[in-house]
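Here is this case:
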Amino acid sequence: MRMRSAILSVFLIGLVDGLAFTNGPSRTRFQKTALSMATSGALNCRPIGVGSATPKTVVTNDDLESIVETNDEWISSRTGISQRRLLTHFKGEEGEEKENLVTISQEAAANALEMSGLDALDIDMVICCTSSPDDMFGDATSIAAGIGCKNAVAFDITAACSGFLFGSVTAGQFLHNKSIKNAIVVGADALSRWVDWDDRNSCILFGDGAGAVVYTASDEPGMLGYSAHSNGLGHDDLMLGYKGEKRMIATPGEGTELSSGSYDNISMNGREVYKFATREVPVVLKEALEAANMTVDDIDWLLLHQANIRIIDIVAERLGIPKEKIITNLKNYGNTSAGSIPLALDEAVRSGQVKKGDIVACAGFGAGLSWGSTILKWG
C-alpha cells in the first residue's frame, strides 16, 4: 500500500561505497553510508500564488573582472551565470532605503499573497527558509508582521538550498491535516555576506534573492508527491562554519576563556558537490514521481535549484527530459540558495510559461548534505 501524507515514513535506504569527501588538504574516506529518507504521496493543498524580489544592485561577470582574475566567457561557460543581484551595506544615511533579507522577503511574500487573492489575515502560517537570516533567532516573524499576517504562526527552517522544498512539504503536512487553511512559504538567502570575494571559484556563483509561494488546503491534491534525503557525512563538502574569537571574562581565579561569535566564509568542494548533485537528483526526482504514481512523461516542466547550468542539463539528460521543458533563470541571478526555486517559478508563472494545471517537478540540493524533490500541480 502506498504511503499517504498523514504518515511520514522515515527509513534507511541504500549503501554508498567508496565515496570520498575532502576537507582542505586531508581526505576522509568512508565505505558505507545510510541515507535517511522521508517520502509520501499526495498532499491535499494547492499552490495558488507566487512572488519574488531581488536586490537593486546588479553585478555582472564583466564587473567581477576588476575583483578577481576571471572573465565573462570563463564564468558563463562553466556556470551559466551572467550576472547576480547583491544586497549592499546599509549605511543609515538620510533618505537611504533599507534593503536586507527581511525586506526582500516581505516583498516576495506580498507579491505571492496578491496573486493568491487572499487577505493577509487569512494566512495561518509563515515559514521562512533561509541559511542567512538578518536575525539569527529567525526572520519569519518579522516577515509575517511586515505584510500584516497577524493571525499566523511564523518560524524559520534551515536546510540550505533544499530549504524551500523542505518548507513546502512542512506546510503541506499542516494543510493536508486541516490544522491550518493557508500558508506562505518563503525561500530567501543573502549568501553574498558569506562569500570570499578574493576566491574566483566561489564569488562568481552566488547572488541574493527571495521567492514565496502561497499554499491553500484543498479537497484535491496539488502537491502530488515528494521525497527528501540528508547525509551528514558529506557536511564538509559544502559548509559555512562557526569561527569564534577568544574572549576572556574575569571570573574568579584565572578567568574563563569563551568564544565571541562569528562565521567563516563559505567552503565548498566543487568537484564532490557536482558529483553528489548529478548522482542523487535524478534518483530523488524518480522517487517523488513514484510516490505520485507518475512517470517522467507526465512532467510539463523541470525546475531545479539554480546552482549550475551543467548540473541542470545533466539531470535533465539522465531523466530524458528535453531542454525546452527546463525552467531556468540562473543566467540573471546566480545561485540564490533557498530563493532559487520560487524565484524561477514566479518568473515562469508571470510570463505565462507555466499555466494552471501544469505539472512542475522540482528538486533542491545543497549543504547538509541535503536534497529533495516535490511534484507540484500549479494553480
